[in-house]
Design brief:
Elements: H1 3-8, H2 33-44, H3 54-58, H4 73-78, H5 86-114, H6 116-140, H7 143-163, H8 166-172, H9 177-206, H10 214-235, H11 265-268, H12 272-303, H13 320-355, H14 357-381, H15 384-413, H16 418-425, H17 427-449, H18 457-478, H19 491-497, H20 499-503, H21 521-545
Transmembrane segments: 31-55, 90-107, 119-138, 144-163, 184-203, 215-236, 274-295, 324-348, 360-379, 385-409, 421-443, 463-480, 524-542
Domain Major facilitator superfamily (MFS) profile: 37-485
Pfam families: MFS_1 (PF07690)
Length: 549
């Protein structure tokens, strides 16, 4: 053992959650870190699938008081005798993503100080604890308790869990920044593909004449998620100061868009580039999340009877049974979009390593504008396959935008505070979570109020407005430039910030035998733990989308 590794291997007597306890030791395989991140992201990604509980909860009370017809949002929060409306429950979904963005922004700096293990631990406690509180809300029929548990406490867990692996993965994979973050963040897109069918199975198992089986499902899923998230949190390791992959040296970058220096968290939001990238993410997400929110009704109202071999029937002319049939097909469409969403997170983020982050976003915006502008024509043609393919590509770029943005930030601001900077940037997601659905839904309502019948024309204006939003994003992306030298920290300031890690590994920079190896037995086992549930979720989704074609 060399002097440097002898110094490195010294013991640390603090808490097992402390950053100093998770500095990787010689022989550690960096390919163990992505499955740890996936274990957390696949659990918190169930936030996308929570709507599976809305209908069962809206029928939790068999017989309701006639006075429940006058229920409003405030009275719904405290009623124990009236069923909740789907709209009342849907606020939990809004709380998820508002709290995700806010908590990531507020505690991003704390995460950089304490490390990903402690952040992952707190995330598991908040997300799973919030679901338990929500179960108590269902048992006592108190909606405010569900909002507090799942929406607020769970939302904080979402934010911390979402950003916990970002800077760690970028530091472990300086040679493949996009691919590394894509591997983890694709888990957030895939969480609902596992969680939603699992929830259905559990609710059916627990359902009786007097209960919908929701609170029991909450408790079981909270226990499962807690085990997985703890495994992920304790699987995190961070590289020592100065580490780089063995045999890899930073290439002389031909792009001025990739810096080798670092911007302090306190200065990042003062730069024009931060707010331009904020706008880029906000507009890309606003357009995509609007589609997610209207995917099912959009397909049904545009194609109507064509979905069931009755091309002469519009949506308004369909009978109750026919509408139920096309609703099932539209559910398959929503599932198919989820597959494109998760696949796009890995594909586009990996591609960004080859063509650059700015060019990747150029692709998102230009291709997105073309597809949104062409959507009304495809709808008028009645070409179901091309229409579905167009929106599949759009949703792949929606997911790809999430996975590419951490690497974009690392290119512009450096890696020292990228996790915290990413946390602050996620306020763009919180904003988009409100703007996108509101814009899309109000346009649709305005069209209906103007007398437009359900059909392709009902969404024509929406598609052009979404294309316009992407055009603004295209301009914002084109204005992103390398930062001026004044924003970067000095080498002395960076060395001071890295002092604790550097002290644990005195010696020359290099690989120290850390991060070696590829897909060995231990890595294969770690990937199987997260990969098998993901494959099951994909299989269920593919099976359910078969009816679409």
């Amino acid at each position: 053992m060399t002097a440097s590794t002898e110094t490195y291997a010294g013991t640390y007597s603090g808490s097992i959650l402390d950053r100093e306890r998770i500095i990787a030791k010689p022989g550690f395989n960096r390919w163990l870190v992505p499955p740890a991140a996936l274990a957390i992201h696949l659990c918190i990604g169930m936030a996308y699938g929570f709507s599976v509980f809305w209908l069962p909860l809206s029928k939790a009370i068999p017989v309701t008081d006639p006075a429940c017809a006058d229920l409003n949002l405030i009275s719904a929060l405290f009623t124990t005798s009236c069923n909740w409306r789907v709209a009342d429950l849907g606020w939990i979904y809004t709380l998820f993503f508002v709290l995700l963005g806010c908590s990531a922004a507020i505690w991003g700096g704390w995460l950089e100080r304490v490390g990903p293990r402690k952040a992952g631990f707190v995330s598991a406690c908040c997300w799973c604890g919030g679901i338990v509180v929500a179960a108590l809300g269902v048992m006592s029929h108190q909606l405010w308790l569900m909002w507090l548990g799942a929406g607020v406490i769970g939302g904080v867990g979402l934010g911390l869990g979402y950003i916990s692996p970002v800077s760690t993965l970028i530091k472990w994979f300086p040679d493949r920044r996009g691919m590394a973050t894509g591997m983890a963040i694709m888990g957030f897109g895939g969480g609902a593909m596992i969680g939603a069918p699992l929830a259905n199975l559990l609710m059916n198992a627990f359902k009786t004449d007097v209960t919908a089986g929701v609170w029991q499902t909450f408790l079981v899923m909270a226990a499962i998620y807690f085990c997985f998230m703890m495994g992920g949190a304790f699987g995190y390791r961070i590289p020592p100061a100065g580490w780089r992959p063995e045999g890899w040296t930073p290439p002389a970058s031909k792009s001025t868009m990739i810096t080798t220096k670092h911007v302090h968290l306190r200065d990042a939001h003062k730069t024009t580039q931060f707010w331009l990238i904020w706008l880029v993410l906000c507009l890309n997400v606003s357009a995509g999340i609007g589609v997610i929110g209207m995917a099912s009704p959009m397909l049904q109202e545009i194609f109507g009877g064509r979905l069931i071999g009755q091309p002469d029937l519009t949506f308004s002319q369909l009978g109750t049974d026919q509408k139920a049939a096309i609703a099932a097909i539209a559910a398959g469409f929503t599932g198919l979009l989820s597959l494109f969403n998760i696949g796009g997170r890995f594909f586009w983020a990996s591609l960004s390593d080859k063509i650059g982050r700015k060019n990747t976003y150029y692709t998102f915006f230009v291709l997105g504008i073309v597809l949104y502008a062409a959507a009304p024509t495809l709808a008028d043609m009645g070409n179901k396959a091309l229409f579905v393919l167009a929106f599949g590509i759009i949703l792949s770029m929606y997911g790809g935008g999430f996975a590419t943005i951490p690497a974009y930030l690392a290119d512009i601001f450096g890696t020292q505070f990228v996790g915290a900077i990413h946390g602050r940037l996620l306020t763009a997601w919180a904003t988009a979570g409100i703007v996108g659905p509101v814009v899309v839904n109000y346009i649709r309502e305005a069209q209906i109020a103007a007398g437009v019948e359900p059909g392709p024309s009902l969404y024509t204006g929406t598609m052009y407005i979404l294309a316009g939003m992407l055009a603004v994003g295209l301009v914002a992306n084109s204005l992103v430039r390398p930062l001026a030298e004044k924003w970067f920290m000095s080498d002395e300031e960076v060395a001071s910030l890295q002092a604790k890690t550097a002290a644990a590994n005195a010696g020359p920079t290099g690989s120290f035998g850390i991060g070696k190896g590829g897909f060995d037995g231990k890595a294969a086992l770690a990937w199987a733990v997260v990969g098998i549930p993901l494959i099951w979720g994909i299989w269920v989704t593919v099976k359910n989308t078969a009816a679409l074609f």
